[in-house]
């Protein structure tokens, strides 16, 4: 199992834009309204911190590989190489680069109309890291950090995310 995890602040930011672009999902008039719903577990898809907590139980399982979105953005070829090795797939350097190029956010966004139709523009918005800084207030940032620490701060997944997000940023 390949488990891809992401900075909870960017997850919230992404879900905010996704929710407001998808008519079947609740939309939010303001970021503040969304933030309250996100932090009080009122999301149709559940609580991201609880999701990470549940997956943390399997973090040491030899059949589970955890990688962060931030790792893949920082070094996509190394990420593909590690994933291929985990699944026992041997790829040449050229093949690794090809997979990294074709699976980049920019490449998927460019092809999204072909692969996902009109839904493509909803799925592939920015694909960046730290977009949360454009929405979060200082108070919201502190609340999210506190919730992170309470739910997963000392866990294996929490430590991995904290390193990728805070130590490498």
Automatic annotation (TrEMBL):
SUPFAM superfamilies assigned to the protein according to its UniProt record, in alphabetical order: P-loop containing nucleoside triphosphate hydrolases (SSF52540)
Enzyme Commission no: 2.8.2.-
Residues annotated as domain Sulfotransferase: 1-155
Keyword Amino-acid biosynthesis (UniProt): no
Broad class of enzyme this protein falls into: transferase
UniProt GO molecular function: sulfotransferase activity
Keywords: Transferase
Coiled-coil parts of chain: none
Family in the record: Belongs to the sulfotransferase 1 family.
Stored PANTHER family: SULFOTRANSFERASE SULT
Protein name, as recorded: Sulfotransferase
Species annotation: Oceanodroma tethys (Wedge-rumped storm-petrel)
């Amino acid at each position: 199992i390949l488990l891809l995890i992401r900075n909870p602040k960017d997850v919230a930011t992404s879900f905010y834009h996704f929710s407001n672009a998808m008519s079947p999902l609740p939309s939010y008039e303001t970021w503040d309204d969304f933030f309250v719903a996100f932090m009080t577990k009122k999301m149709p898809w559940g609580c991201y911190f609880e999701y990470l907590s549940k997956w943390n139980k399997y973090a040491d399982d030899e059949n589970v590989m955890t990688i962060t979105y931030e790792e893949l953005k920082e070094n996509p070829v190394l990420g593909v190489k590690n994933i291929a090795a985990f699944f026992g797939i041997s790829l040449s350097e050229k093949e690794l680069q090809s997979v990294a190029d074709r699976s980049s956010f920019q490449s998927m966004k460019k092809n999204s109309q072909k692969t996902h139709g009109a839904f493509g523009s909803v799925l592939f918005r920015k694909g960046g890291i730290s977009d949360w800084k454009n929405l979060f207030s200082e108070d919201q940032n502190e609340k999210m950090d506190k919730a992170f620490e309470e739910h997963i701060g000392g866990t294996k997944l929490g430590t991995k995310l904290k390193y990728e997000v805070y130590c490498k940023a």
